[in-house]
Amino acid sequence: MSNTSPEHIAALIERVGRLLSTEAHAEGLLPVQWEALRYLHKANRFSRTAAALTAYLGLTKGTVSQTLKALESKGLVKKQIDLKDRRSKHLSLSTKGKRLLQRDPLEVTVAAINELGSSSQRALNRSLESLLALRLAAQDRQPFGQCRDCRYFADRHPEGDPHFCQLLHEKLAAADAQAICYEQLPR
Hints:
Elements: H1 6-23, H2 31-42, H3 50-57, H4 61-73, E1 77-81, E2 89-93, H5 95-101, H6 107-115, H7 118-138, E3 153-154, E4 163-165, E5 170-172, H8 174-178
Antiparallel strand pairs: 1-2, 3-4, 4-5
């Protein structure tokens, strides 16, 4: 019989995390830099800011600022001033950053997860989502879910393109529905 104690499960998660962290030193980047690149790749246009990245990573502003400076100096991330609010800057991946993500070391773990059967993948997904939700709630942190799962998401809205965000009063493209959002509140 396998050990299913909470202590053992937490230790397993820690070991997998350590493996991920070790692999994430690939391509001359730090693990946090890979996380920032992945976030910018998955986030919607409203959520590609330093403040949103700081909230997502749960790190200090200074750490995120240094991370972004390093990614910018490597030519992986670009900053653009928001035309509506000139105090704000939006972040995006450069072409070089997008190409680098095609060699993401996280893919080793993705391949291992693909080795699991579909029922194991579903169970693992449900369990990890629940665990993450509990940990985020305990720290009063935002969930950063997908737009399509948000209470403000309006599918095929007449003012949308084809969707609409009722919180930000913005049109959403089909790709936006799949993106993660800083403002997301689960239904």
